[in-house]
Amino acid sequence: xxxxxxxxxxxxxxxxxxxxxxxxxxxxxxxxxxxxxxxxxxxxxxxxxxxxxxxxxxxxxxxxxxxxxxxxxxxxxxxxxxxxxxxxxxxxxxxxxxxxxxxxxxxxxxxxxxxxxxxxxxxxxxxxxxxxxxxxxxxxxxxxxxxxxxxxxxxxxxxxxxxxxxxxxxxxxxxxxxxxxxxxxxxxxxxxxxxxxxxxxxxxxxxxxxxxxxxxxxxxxxxxxxxxxxxxxxxxxxxxxxxxxxxxxxxxxxxxxxxxxxxxxxxxxxxxxxxxxx
Length: 278
Prior knowledge:
Structural class: mainly alpha
C-alpha cells in the first residue's frame, strides 16, 4: 500500500484508546457459535487465569503488525497468523445455535474470517469515533478499502471483502439479523472470561477495578440486541455514564504525551516494503 492508502489505518490504529473497542469486537466474534467453539477448544481463555489478557495482547500485536508496520511486516504477520489458524479446526459435538451436531469448523474458513474481519473494523471505527473523534464518510470508506489488503493476506477472497462502509454495514446488518449469529451458553462463558475473569497473577490488583469501566464500554459499544443476549446490564443511568466516560476520554487524549497516547509503532512514519520479513 502507498502512503495515501495507508493513512486512515495509521490514524485509527496508532491510538491506544481504540483498544477500548476490543471487548465489543471479541463478544461480537463469540456471537458466531463456530468462532466461539474454536476459541473454546483451541485457546487458553478458560484454561489459565490470564487467558483473556494474553488474547488481548496477541491481538494488539497482530493489529500493530498488520496496520502500523511496513508491508513486509504485515505480510509476515499474516503468514504467522495463518499458520496458527491452520491448527484450529474441529467438529461441533452438539447443537450450537443454528448449527447442528457434526458441523465442521476451521479458522481458515473464509466465512468465519470475514465475520472476524468485519467485527474488528466495526469496533475499531466505533471506538475511534466514541473516544477520539469523528471520521468523514470518505475516511470510513478508505479504511474499509485498505483493510481489504490485510483481510486478503489472512485468506479472505477479495471479492468477499467490503470495500466501503455501506458494503460493510450491509454485511454486518445481514449477519446480525440472520440465523448464524446467536449468543450461545458457550459464548456467555467466554464473555465472562473476557469481562470478569480472575485476576491474572502478573496484573497488579490495584488496576483490576478498571475492568468495571471496560465492562460498561463493551456494553455501550455492542448492538442492543447482542448486549441483551449477553445479559449485560444497561439502563438510562448506564447510558449517561457511558456518555460521560466517552467525553472524558476525548477531553483527556489531546493532553497526553505521545508515549501514552500512541502505540510505539504508531509514533514513527511507517517504512516501505523492503522485500524481507522483519
